[in-house]
Amino acid sequence: MAKEGNKQMPEPEKSVVRGSEENKRLARELRQQRIELERQNEELRLARAEVETGLQKYYELYDFAPVGYCTVDGTGTIRESNLAGALLLGVDRARLLDGKISDFVTEDSCRWLALFLERVFSAGNKASGEIRVPDGEGGERHLYLEGASFEAASGEPQCRIALMDVTKSRQTSIELEHYRYHLEELVQQRTGELEAANVQLREQAENLSSIYQALDSIGLIVCHLEEHDARIDIFSAGAEKLLGYSQDEAIGHSLALIYPPEDRTVIAGQVQRLRQGQAMQSFDMTLARRSGARFPAVFSIHPFAWHDGRFTKAVGVFRDISTLMLIQEQLQAMNDELELRVKERTAELHESNVALKVLLKKREEDKLVLSEQVLSNTANLVDPFLDRLMKSGLTEPQQVLVEILRNNIEELTSPFANTFSAKLGRLTPAEIQVANLVKLGKRTKEIAEIMHLSSGTISIHRKNIRRKLELTNQKTNLQTMLSTNP
Q: What pTM was computed for the model?
């Protein structure tokens, strides 16, 4: 019936009904779309707020990060930088942006920085290294760089660089290197000391080995000190060899075992002194062997092991001095014989000395007699003829020569002759003749006439005489020196 009703409804009414339903459907769809758009708009608003919050956090983290960050383009121009980056480079961020990064580093770091940027941009890989920048106080700051290139939104290649201050770590590294060198020196020094100590230990070991071998001829006994006696605790191989007792026979027995019976009474007194800490140094005593034979020995005993106010042990060393005493007796006999020979020789030397004194006295007497004879012969045999020669009508030059001859003879026969000859020993014959004439008071011109030489030659001889007699730079008169010096 509905169908029939519809069929009976006019066409205009049907159109109105369909339009109303369509409008309602569209209105519902529009409401749903508006609700969806509002929901999407809210989500976008929330997402934008979240992104803005994230960006704010990123910028805050970027700006206040303890590590410096900056962005540099291919020309080395700084496009972005955080506060730490500006602080590390030593300038305000406003001055830093759009400036060349090479303007803020030391001169010797510019070349390395250029190589660093070239590696980053050319290879597209990461690069790292160090630069130095002024610290504003006259020093330098060491910065570690690590950078990587990327392509900006504009298509331009740029580089992000992280900067870290490694000045302290560099200083620490230098100090550590210094400490390492110092430690190596100490190690070497200590090694040298240890090597020297090892050498000393080896020497001591060798010495101990030598001492141990030498103890074969030296006895060593360690005793436990009792109230009035001493019991043997240690009996060395040397003691066995010298005394004839084995260790089993000696250990645990009284020290009287090695004393002759007549000397055993002194043991109690010795023990008391040792218990009080009195050592007994190098004293001679007689010891008794197991066979009953006796021999002289030198003994030294030292107390040790302090306990309850007194010493409880003592160590003694001894050696047989029979051979030494025999040698001493032989030496004493030789000394007595030598003294006797010395006395005899002394008497012989005394007699020889007396005879020598007599001979020396005789020689002096003979010398005096000879001197008197020479003077007498000169006065009796030479002087008269010289006087007769002077009176024989000689010319003046001849008289001068005779006078010189007389003076020379007087020189030879006077105590001055020996001194004058010794003094003139370094002169030539011509210089000796000139010196003799100077001594007689002759002047240069007179000497030249006498010797038939020029005055210049005589002057040269006089200079040579002064030089050889060491009078060159002195004002001493040559005649005075020749006449008066001994």
A: 0.33
Q: In this predicted model, what pLDDT tens digit does every residue of 271-302 receive, in sequence order? A: 999 999 999 998 899 999 999 999 999 999 99
* Alpha-carbon torsion (157, 82, 91, 93), positive or negative: positive
Are the beta carbons of 433 and 451 closer than 8 angstroms? yes
Structure tokens at 346: 């002394």
Give the angle 134-137-140 at the CA atoms, nearest 5°. Answer: 35
Alpha-carbon distance of 42 to 54, in angstroms, equals: 18
Distance CA(247)–CA(262), nearest Å, equals 24
Helix (H) or strand (E) holding 129: strand 127-134
Give the start-to-end residue ranges of the domains of the chain.
2-60, 66-165, 218-320, 393-484
Which residues are CB-neighbours of 83 under 8 A, at least 6 positions away?
63, 64, 93
Q: Would you give the distance in Å from CA 441 to the centre of its chain?
A: 72
Beta-strand pair 230-235/127-134: unpaired
Report domain 393-484's class.
mainly alpha
The continuous run of DSSP H or E covering 165 comes out as strand 157-165
Other Cβ atoms less than 10 A from the Cβ of 148: the count is: 14
Query: Contact 444/459 with Cβ under 8 angstroms?
Result: yes
Decide: 413 and 375 in contact? Cβ < 8 Å. Answer: yes
CATH of domain 218-320: 3.30.450.20
List the one residue out of 428, 440, 456 whose CA is nearest residue 401: 440
Q: What are the structure tokens assigned to 225, written together?
A: 């000190």
Q: Is 131 helix (H, G, I), strand (E, B) or coil?
A: strand
- pLDDT tens digits for 149-169? 888 888 888 888 998 888 888
Q: 3-class DSSP state for residue 222?
A: strand
Under CATH, what is the fold of the domain 66-165? Beta-Lactamase (3.30.450)
The tally of CA atoms less than 13 A away on the side-chain side of residue 256 is 12
